Amino acid sequence: QLQLVESGGGLVQPGGSLRLSCAVSGFNLDYYAIGWFRQAPGKEREGISCIANNEGSTYYTDSVKGRFTISTDSANNMVYLHMNNLIPDDTAVYFCAIDSQRVRVRFCLLAPSHYDYWGQGTQVTVSS
């Protein structure tokens, strides 16, 4: 069964940290690009980070560089997003997704249109 399930969201104060988890089933994480995305109310979904595990290549959108880190645990089919120094603008629903159309990729793309399997999302709220 092809499935992605996010967890780890919640309410956090500005400057705080969270770790989001994405449990993946039905895919070998070493073969595909995996991304993290977010969507705030009234805004389009944006790609914030992705990893091409086959090469270990990672990419981040400018607004999260230096604060967020993507990682994978291939043995347990998990993908993580470590988020530090959170700000109110990080408030959104966060999604993980896989690009199943390209195998053994050397790089990944942040555009959501490249990803075809999605989780249900987890809410992150940054507020004092």
Provide a compact summary of the structure.
It contains no helices and 11 strands. The chain has strands at residues 3-7, 10-12, 18-25, 33-39, 46-52, 57-60, 68-73, 78-83, 92-99, 117-118, 122-126.
Describe the structure.
The chain has 128 residues and is mostly beta strands. The chain is built from no helices and eleven strands. Strands 2, 4, 5, 6, 9, 10 and 11 form a seven-stranded mixed β-sheet that branches. β5 (46-52) and β6 (57-60) form a beta hairpin. The N and C termini lie far apart (40 Å).
Structural class: mainly beta
Number of helices: 0
Total strand segments: 11
Strand content: over 45%
Mean pLDDT: 95
- State the helicity in percent bands: under 10%
Distance between the termini: 40 Å
Instruction: Please outline the major beta sheet.
Output: 7 strands, mixed
What is the H/E string?
EEEEEEEEEEE
Give the oligomeric state: single chain
Instruction: Name the overall outline.
Output: globular
Low-confidence stretches: none
Cα-atom radius of gyration: 14 Å
